[in-house]
Design brief:
The structure holds two protein chains of two kinds. By secondary structure, chain A is an all-beta fold. Chain A is built from no helices and eleven strands. Helices cover 0% and strands 51% of the residues of chain A. The model of chain A has no long low-confidence stretch (mean pLDDT 93). The model of chain B has no long low-confidence stretch (mean pLDDT 92). Classes of the chains: A mainly beta, B mainly beta. At the A-B interface, strand 4, strand 5, strand 9 and strand 10 of A face strand 4 of B.
Chain lengths: 114, 106
């Protein structure tokens, strides 16, 4: 089954404790992206990747890192999480080489930073 | 800058057609218009996309004006399960604005 898988789905952590949210897709998609969603603010793009070893900042990259060493994986890294990073996070992927085409989304990861 | 403008909310009676408008007055000639929806806190789901011609699939129809400055998503027979936030996007940069919260009324 074609899908985008995020882990963990739910996480409560404390300020400063490094964490990684994994994202994996099984559709051989070139384009992958991370979004965060907060009440009243809609979906905001954090980082995106056009292909392996190619990553770019989105609208709200501060406090986050990403890597794209393999085509299927695009982990989101919070080196030193802070309470303002409490949010619902979505990973998405797309077949298209450019940032077009149908986006497939994961089920979301709800992160709470205390 | 979402680059598209949508009403924040709309109501539609169950069984009626839901018509959701989107303004994208600065769209360029080779940009597609995409529609997604998000039910509760699930991941957004692709609905339909188009360039200049009207499009229809099993979920919805997309009507794009001749000048391409606006479009309308049509859900022909809305059901309670269509209650969601609907997002209209341009594909030069995939930006999700706040969308339209559609309430289907029983």
């Amino acid at each position: 089954e074609a899908q985008v898988t995020q882990n963990p789905r739910y996480l409560i952590t404390v300020t400063g404790k490094k964490l990684t949210v994994t994202c994996s897709q099984n559709m051989n998609h070139e384009y992958m992206s991370w979004y965060r969603q907060d009440p009243g603010l809609g979906l905001r793009q954090i980082y995106y990747s056009m292909n392996v070893e190619v990553t770019d900042k989105g609208d709200v990259p501060e406090g986050y890192k990403v890597s794209r060493k393999e085509k299927r994986n695009f982990p989101l890294i919070l080196e030193s999480p802070s309470p303002n990073q409490t949010s619902l996070y979505f990973c998405a992927s797309s077949l298209a080489r450019w940032n077009t085409g149908e986006l497939f989304f994961g089920e979301g990861s709800r992160l709470t930073v205390l | 800058d979402a680059k598209t403008t949508q009403p924040p909310s709309m109501d539609c009676a169950e069984g009626r057609a839901a018509n959701l408008p989107c303004n994208h007055s600065t769209i360029s000639g080779n940009e597609y218009v995409y529609w997604y929806r998000q039910i509760h806190s699930q991941g957004p789901q692709y609905i339909i996309h188009g360039l200049k011609n009207n499009e229809t699939n099993e979920m919805a129809s997309l009507i794009i004006t001749e000048d391409r400055k606006s479009s309308t998503l049509i859900l022909p027979h809305a059901t309670l399960r269509d209650t969601a936030v609907y997002y209209c996007l341009r594909d030069d940069k995939i930006i999700f604005g706040k969308g339209t919260r559609l309430h289907i009324l029983p």
